[in-house]
Amino acid sequence: MAAGGVDAGVQQQSRVRQRSGVGQRSGVGQRSGVGEQGRGCAGCLIALVGASAAVLTWAPHARVSVTGGFEGMHRDLSVLYVDLPLIALGGALVPVAVWSLGLRLLGRPWAALLGALVTLVLGVWGLTGWWEPYERPEFAG
């Protein structure tokens, strides 16, 4: 009777191990959580790089509006509470959206990363070519 109880206990422990995944090797059919965590960290890194690049590209153009230019005549602080958040959000969200779409459609992280970086470069290029802060005429009498 003791042998039957020991066998039942061993079987119970092996069932618990199978459910929790303890003592199992990750095989071909099983996915490890490291890949998903790595993709999440990569997405956060892409967002950080995108927002930083967009803001650092935008800042020299907005300097005239913040400092006011010659004798403070052109001061317009709306670039800080309107344009800055929009530039930072666009720089963070657009490359991440392309990256996640690339992961879903292509399934290859390197191709999705390449797409996100190309999108970031084109976005920064478009920002420098298109966005220009408003400047009042110098002599508006």
Descriptive account of the structure:
This protein is mostly helical and 141 residues long. The chain has a domain of 97 residues. About 7% of the residues have low confidence.
- Mean pLDDT across all residues, rounded? 78
Radius of gyration: 27 Å
Distance between the termini: 106 Å
Give the proportion of residues in helices: over 70%
- Note the total helix count: 4
Q: Which segments are poorly predicted (pLDDT under 50) over 5 or more consecutive residues?
A: 24-33
Short key terms for the protein model shown above:
74% helix, mainly alpha, 141 residues, 0% strand, elongated
Task: Furnish the topology, listing elements before pairings.
Layout (H helix, E strand, L loop, with lengths): L1 H19 L12 H35 L10 H29 L2 H22 L11
Helix pairs in contact: 2-3, 2-4, 3-4
Question: Gist?
Answer:
With 141 residues, the protein is mainly α. 74% of the residues lie in helices and 0% in strands.
